[in-house]
Amino acid sequence: MKADAPVVLGEPKGYTAQKAGVKRGIAILDFILRLVGFIGTLSSAIMMATTNETLPFFTQFIRFRAEYNDLPTFTFFVVANAAVSAYFLLSLPLSIFNILRSSAKNSRIILIIFDTGMLALLTAGSSAGAAIVYLAHRGNTKANWLAICQQFNSFCERISGSLIGSYVGVTVFIVLILLSASALARR
Amino acid sequence: MKADAPVVLGEPKGYTAQKAGVKRGIAILDFILRLVGFIGTLSSAIMMATTNETLPFFTQFIRFRAEYNDLPTFTFFVVANAAVSAYFLLSLPLSIFNILRSSAKNSRIILIIFDTGMLALLTAGSSAGAAIVYLAHRGNTKANWLAICQQFNSFCERISGSLIGSYVGVTVFIVLILLSASALARR
């Protein structure tokens, strides 16, 4: 890129200002997306963690009761969502810093690194959760696993609903990484 | 970064050559990692897709037989791994292009965009598969799902083993995205 440098120096001033404006726009969008992701993953974690259902009938020995931590995968789902929402909250100051200093480079690289790791964690939690939710709804005749949703109706609705916020978070991360990459390339 | 440009122009030539060398090194590492990822995900897909076990005993009506597509999640696992290994293969030419032209920018951005999407797809497939493999091994007493691995021993070993290549692919993607981001930032 060395050969281009004199050309860049000779650019009209308006072009440079416009470029900085685009980068500031990207940084503001980054901030808003992080807020959306924070709300989505936090509500997912809370929704899953507070789910429990006790059936109205019981035998002498057993009360039929379903809680999220009956299935270890859902515990992982809650942990992943809680960790990611905490990360979203912690990354907000760095995002504000990017809005204020649109030419910042290192802060963007740090964000890409952590965003990628968190994308992997959240996707893992969401899809493991989705696999078990699917099994709860449909069961599997070959493995002789029955669909527990036939008994635990409202429990199943809650756990299905809590997947939404989690996938919102995954989408947010993908868009965030693309935005950061394009902002880095625009320097 | 405009203010820095004259300083960059005044750099000794050796420094520029060294910088290009680092970028070429990153591009070569990128190529090797893609090969590793290709082998990992392809072997995962093949290993899972060719898994089946027929138990040596049977009743008049039923032969006990386990195949990967008895569980829809494993079908998704195979599809995700096959798609990602095809992507790895297709991205090799672009990776070679990056080795030859170390200052290329657009090709790196294209790779980051697709890498991120494929990371999400592969992580989803791997962790959904892992959730079901865990269930097959341990079962769940609360949901009354029995551990099928007590009967289908070699089937379970194969499906557990095929997770490895898949997670190798996930790790490769994370490193690839970090390498591309650092290469973009180095321009």
List keywords for this structure.
homodimer; 187 residues; mainly alpha; two-stranded antiparallel ribbon; 5 helices; elongated; disordered N terminus; CASP_dom (chains A, B); transmembrane helix (chains A, B)
Give a nutshell description of this structure.
The structure is a homodimer of 187-residue chains. The first copy, chain A, has 187 residues and is mainly α.
Helix and strand pattern of chain A: HHEEHHH
> Uncertain segments of chain A of ≥5 residues (pLDDT<50)?
1-8
For the sheet with most strands of chain A, the description reads: 2 strands, antiparallel
Order of strands in the sheet with the most strands of chain A?
Answer: 1-2
Radius of gyration of chain A: 23 Å
Kindly state the number of beta strands of chain A: 2
Mean of residue pLDDT values of chain A: 85
The outline of chain A comes out as elongated
Helix fraction of chain A, binned, reads over 70%
Query: What portion of residues of chain A belong to β-strands?
Result: 5-15%
